[in-house]
Amino acid sequence: MAEYENIRTGRHCVFLMHAHLVFVTKYRHHVFTDAHLTRMEEIMRNVCADFESELTEFDGGSNHVHLLVNFPPKVAVSKLVNSLKGVSSRRMRQEFPDLVQHYYRANKLWSGSYFAGSVGGAPLAIVRRYIENQNRPL
């Protein structure tokens, strides 16, 4: 039962909640290099910490990222997503001016949509393995 080792407690609850999030770039542009993804993971880890959440797994490709987030019941997934996308877009533009070529139309890094799936039916190890095996750009 290794999946239940990290059960968390709040003042009035005991919980183990995970969400699989996927964000794609605006117009599915191929934007990210390995350096971009490494920094993006750090930024998103910090945002999650601000929400008392944990970024359990992170990976992606040149035009998308996958996140596995452990979050408390008081956190609305939509608010977490908005913060993750907003902060990462702003910080990446500040730290990587070369990304400006991908902002020529909308001045946004991310598409307005996202995928959020609750994780519970599949063992977390399988979801982790899936995220770990996402191809990073060369």
Summed up, the domain count is 1
CATH class: Alpha Beta
Number of helices: 3
Work out the helicity level: 25-40%
What's the mean pLDDT score?
A: 88
What is the β-strand count? 6
Major sheet: arrangement of strands: 4-5-3-6
Strand content: 25-35%
Which CATH architecture? 2-Layer Sandwich
Contiguous runs where pLDDT drops below 50 for at least 5 residues:
none
Envelope shape = globular
> What Rg, in angstroms, do the CA atoms define?
15 Å
End-to-end Cα distance, whole Å, is 37 Å
Explain this structure to me?
With 138 residues, the protein is an alpha+beta fold. The chain has one domain (2-132): Alpha-Beta Plaits. It is built from 3 helices and 6 strands, in the order E-E-E-H-E-E-H-E-H. It has helices at 34-50, 77-95, 124-132, and strands at 8-9, 14-15, 18-25, 54-61, 64-70, 110-118. The strands form 2 sheets. A 4-stranded antiparallel β-sheet has the order 4-5-3-6, sandwiched between helices. It has a two-stranded antiparallel ribbon with strand order 1-2. Strand 1 and strand 2 form a beta hairpin. Helix 1 (34-50) crosses helix 2. It is globular and about 50 Å long. It starts with 7 loop residues before the first strand and ends in a 6-residue tail after the last helix. The mean pLDDT is 88.
